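During the reporting period the student researcher (J.K.) took over the structure-prediction task from the postdoctoral fellow and processed the backlog of single-chain submissions. One of the processed entries is reproduced below for the supervisory committee.
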Amino acid sequence: MSRSSLFRLQRLRWLIPYSDDKWLDDCRRRESRLSNTRLNQNTGECLRVAGKQPSTCMIGPARLISALGNMNLGSVIALFAAVTTFGAGYEFPSGASRRSPDGKWELACHSQGQAGHSLLLKKVGGPSFELLRFSRGCDALWSPDSSRIAVTDWWASDRSDVFIYSVAGRVSKRTVAKLLPKTAIPKKERCGHCYFEARKWLDFHRLQIKISGHTDEAPVYGFEHEYIFDLASGRFQEVKKKPNQPVH
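J.K. obtained the following structure tokens:
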């Protein structure tokens, strides 16, 4: 499998097997975020134009139908076991604002054309201020008690990070990629295509994190780890590690 095919699949990280209706709704939302992605209204295919040759992927209720160069189904399944799946939380950029569970805070996005986008935090009835400036897309998760926000910033084709903001009192920010101990995952995984993603809040101070991607140096393989980050203690607990998947 060529590196260009691998890159295309990394960008199509949201393709997972679920119902056709949900697939179409998600693809329509993603279409507005990637200018070179188009939805075929007749067939339900999500088309990504890569250079002169288009690539298509369609998800049905129980199977994956793919046409990506000369990749066989086994290679597709192996790679999709390693790449990031559909992001959790509220997606931005979006024209809609998202309130915290207690209704006291509001997240909104302001787009600035080629300058990118700003994720704004506003106290209801008060002023707003910028939490994050991003260029591609991000997903935001409120903690159950509305005291924290976990934001996954998909800031590069080979990188994403999770920023955790505390809104109780003075707003503060933590970066998960920097907080994770250097020995937690191999260096070649960190230096490859490495995606940090906030999956869900388990309570007001414990966040489930997913780290996935693929190495860039031979032998290339896909990886996936899941950790629980305890913000109170600063500790990471590994709760799942999928077997490495060779990429041929």
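The committee noted the following: DSSP finds five helices and 18 strands in the chain.
J.K. will present the remaining backlog at the next meeting.
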